[in-house]
Amino acid sequence: MIFGLPIWVFLCIVFIFISGYMAIRAMRAEHNLEQEYIEREGQVYLKRIEKEKERRGKRDAMMSE
């Protein structure tokens, strides 16, 4: 007996803490993956906007001539 508890109760408590730690670690990893995805998609969107501005700028320059 450890701390007056049967060994199986002590092991259950330890496994609960390990499970909580693993859940928190998984949430952090998932959060990082989501942030990377969001940044990648944001870059794609900004490039698309930049191309559209260039296209409109060329069209406006041709119309003003």
TrEMBL record:
The chain crosses the membrane at residues 6-24. It holds the Pfam family Spore_YhaL. Keywords: Membrane, Transmembrane, Transmembrane helix. The keyword Membrane applies. This is SigE-dependent sporulation protein. It comes from Halobacillus trueperi.
